[in-house]
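Annex B. Sample input.
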Amino acid sequence: MTKKPCIIVSAPVPADLRQLLEASCDTVDVPMGKSPLEVLPQEQWSQIDGMVCTVKTRVDAALLDAMPALKVVSNFAVGFDNVDMNAANERKVLVCNTPGVLDGAVADLTIGLMLCVARNLVAGDAFVRSGAWTKGAFPLATDIRGKTLGLLGMGRIGRVVARTARAFDMDVIYHNRRQDTEAEAEGIARYVSRDELFAQSDVLSVHIPLAPETRKSIGAREFGMMKKTAIFLNTARGAVVDEDALIDALKNGVIAGAGLDVMTTEPLPADSPLTQLPNVVLQAHIGSATVETRRAMIDLAVHNLVNAMTGNQPKAMVNAEAWPLAREAQPA
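Annex B, continued. Sample output.
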């Protein structure tokens, strides 16, 4: 009789998908965000073949060494900065994620933040609720139509933002590690240098992954190149920005405002300087937080893991080169 692989479930898996997992795997539950090494008895570590988890679970060299049978990590997210990819690659551990299914939701939030900051909608709501409207008119805000939107990063989400922004008659420019000739041929954006992007944008939106080379890659130099009337948006990862430099730029009028769904520290402490700035709109890392999108994400994450555990190629692999070895390592 074929031995079922043993997997860790450390993500919000609905009942129907849990049945799918349990049909082909033995499951072990670990609370979300907890290290399996803290929760599971040591004698169980060597029995774990796979894992579905959120970005709150740190998958580092220590965990991978403690679980030598672990060959597949399926992230319930498009990002994978919780995984030490060097360690995973060295140990031939396959890492899966959930790209594509959340592009629209994150792009929608990006556009929403742009509108909230430019039109000062959050303050406008408070203005009406407080009764201030009875005493006078709300201050004028700023148009976005006809303005220049700059995208730092032109992946799947960036392309959806670009297409949506065209409906607002915005001129879309972008900078990316690789020039996106397809997007240019489609007429949705044009390529500029990184410095030109910061200098020319009326609204600058960040869509780059967090990696060692991008950590704090947006700082005082970049904010200093931006227009004083510019708006800065980040729905990617908080740590790609030097947050102290951003706060200084917002306090001192270097840029006009910011819309942030991500911060360096999450949840954001209530006493953070960001919470005291009137020219900032803050959200609680909700880019993918819709019922439909989260269902599509967990569906893909679970199917990635089930496919890998049953010898079938997963749909979304971060390091596809690890797949042949991960397949060979499955329990006989």
